[in-house]
């Protein structure tokens, strides 16, 4: 009875073990039933030990019944797959024990080669005594030795260093939050160690590479997201968001930190970009590095003036529920500790140095408290003391005279949930006997781990063999038409980024590559955050309010006592991307408070990169999306949601530009995103899936052609919309030529001044990006108020293109961008879209994107629809209140024209001053994007 019950539960058991519920289909269940039919009448249901690992020729020869042989193999496959899951659980447990014993902090010391003529003052260079001890010789003939887990000599290579860091990658993939810091005095080689150079890549690029490599060997598929921020003067800045080029009169608003009751830390509005391969992550990393705040100091020509933090979040996708937690690995290049006397810093450099020292001190306090298992861990309160550096090594010393700062340390708060498992520390003193015991226990665990790994490999190999066998048998059998489509229980197949799948994709002709629109699927993260998993709206609402309510802790802004005038006139730090953000007397308190509040109700943005598809024509697959999971408010229920996605596609153009943008009639236009196809993982669906793909592609192409034909017709009539590519690449004169005379700014649109600025009064409310040449001549479609790209003005602008350039793999994006005559984008108060206001409702911070108002008034009483008027009013009001639309606004506005399949109709309706019915907009219903991904956006 018992065993029959187990048989009945087999399917569910395997389902839950493999975490693939959603993909299992009727065909799969049938095959499991087949397996069950051939189960032995007695004995354990799945006994992996009895599984036949030696598959070579054992089937088919003796067994006359082909079906029987197939079922037997499937049975073994199921057993082995279950066993692999067990092994994974065991491995995690053993590793856990091992890490607990070993202690979670390992401290390495790397000695930097001494430069010719380097002056050490009254200190002498540090000497490495052996592989774990260094000697510091003091001036008065005294010396001190320090122990580390490992000491790297001055001649050590980047490889040597990474070798020691690599085990952490495994921990991160196993679900642990991990953290790698580089800390030390300014100029001692932290950035060189973490970032490295192109020829000598450092820990971060190597670790990212290893992460993707090791993920392939795992039993699960993983979802990786990449984020990068810096903590500059106590402010959190997203390094992946393009920064304004010119100095503004305010400190950029800081991202705010949220802590949930379980201790998890989230940073509001921090971009988390989904990456599916090493190169994507690397490009983003390079982009982030370019934006770091650096400056020349007495100690270092290119000194980091901030802490930079790189975060890779890792979510196992098809792991069992209990193991599906997201883990993160942080790489932190801390700002260098400085001694003011030595660096002779003043003005801004001095303030930066102080901020760095203070936060390092807080970090030291936290680690100290964790190590000593103190009741109170001062994550959010700055303590006394500072880090004092001697040459290449660091000595943590408390200095009671150092001024107390009753401020939050953003650094320790951000890393709070990644520092919490600190166990042993180098300064922990244990007896020799205890140490021996510990060593033995660790050796034991290491041996266990090794055995598990070997067993894991064996089982994997057996599964591969069985699959080959199964394939042969199914091909041979006359009943193969049925069997061919039955999915195999393969470890490889269970992970989308597995080798076999990739080889297959490579080998298949381009036409046959299934274009799975992965980017349209809601990520687990976004579904959870958006509450899309909740069945009805009431439940979802409850979820959201609970969630907001649960964010119990908020970091306050840090207001550094900076005298703007004096600082402004002293040196200025700059990002490597030429970001120049001076402080003012006002500091950032007001602004930050406002932004923090706005940000409070909003979630992390998740930009989703699809898997790289190099096939030409796979434009849809190569697009990129920004999902703004929660908090965009009711207004996103309306027609505009899908436009976000479209513009994000453009913002994140992948490397092969020609495959993204389709030429038509001599012009280059963006493809229209096609709706997601929902596939079953059932192998039986393969053919019909391909067929559907082709049909969909056809429909898509036809739609596109119709759209372009419309553009052509408009052009023939003397007027057409400027496509995005026109705007970016065509000379101004061409654009002008393509428009009727009365549509050009300066002709029909009267010019006047507001606040001393020359502005154009436009007659209608449609927004479109356009180009301004050096004479500030604008070309707009008729009655269209536009965003303006200033090719030769660097002020007040946002480098939208830097993101594109980075994704394309081009470095120095901003300069390239400027040199191509595509300047900066301006945001205007007259935004008609609802995004700005919904952004404000939801609290999306547009911190670094906020621009000085370049006022562009919009004519009143133009006969536009009520909804649009309302949007406009809200938007203008927000602007007046100092809340300005940001990048999202621009995205939307570009999108609203670029994406419109019927721009002609839309423009005509404006021109005739008729009401523009809301329900005829650019809704995703109309674009066929009625998927729950977008449902997530509507919240
Ligand atoms: N191991 C090394 N081998 C060769 N050159 C090195 C090494 N470490 C550091 N350098 C060089 O020393 C200089 C300073 O290094 P780096 O900028 O990495 O210091 P840092 O600790 O990050 O300083 P800061 O805290 O001011 O940012 C750089 O020119 C770097 O190339």
From TrEMBL:
<dbReference type="GO" id="GO:0008017">
    <property type="term" value="F:microtubule binding"/>
</dbReference>
<dbReference type="InterPro" id="IPR036961">
    <property type="entry name" value="Kinesin_motor_dom_sf"/>
</dbReference>
<dbReference type="GO" id="GO:0005524">
    <property type="term" value="F:ATP binding"/>
</dbReference>
<feature type="binding site">
    <location>
        <begin position="184"/>
        <end position="191"/>
    </location>
    <ligand>
        <name>ATP</name>
    </ligand>
</feature>
<dbReference type="GO" id="GO:0015630">
    <property type="term" value="C:microtubule cytoskeleton"/>
</dbReference>
<keyword id="KW-0547">Nucleotide-binding</keyword>
<keyword id="KW-0505">Motor protein</keyword>
<feature type="compositionally biased region" description="Polar residues">
    <location>
        <begin position="484"/>
        <end position="500"/>
    </location>
</feature>
<dbReference type="InterPro" id="IPR027640">
    <property type="entry name" value="Kinesin-like_fam"/>
</dbReference>
<feature type="region of interest" description="Disordered">
    <location>
        <begin position="484"/>
        <end position="513"/>
    </location>
</feature>
<dbReference type="InterPro" id="IPR027417">
    <property type="entry name" value="P-loop_NTPase"/>
</dbReference>
<dbReference type="GO" id="GO:0003777">
    <property type="term" value="F:microtubule motor activity"/>
</dbReference>
<keyword id="KW-0175">Coiled coil</keyword>
<dbReference type="Pfam" id="PF00225">
    <property type="entry name" value="Kinesin"/>
</dbReference>
<feature type="domain" description="Kinesin motor">
    <location>
        <begin position="104"/>
        <end position="419"/>
    </location>
</feature>
<comment type="similarity">
    <text>Belongs to the TRAFAC class myosin-kinesin ATPase superfamily. Kinesin family.</text>
</comment>
<protein>
    <submittedName>
        <fullName>Kinesin-like protein KIFC3</fullName>
    </submittedName>
</protein>
<dbReference type="GO" id="GO:0007018">
    <property type="term" value="P:microtubule-based movement"/>
</dbReference>
<feature type="coiled-coil region">
    <location>
        <begin position="435"/>
        <end position="483"/>
    </location>
</feature>
<keyword id="KW-0067">ATP-binding</keyword>
<dbReference type="InterPro" id="IPR001752">
    <property type="entry name" value="Kinesin_motor_dom"/>
</dbReference>
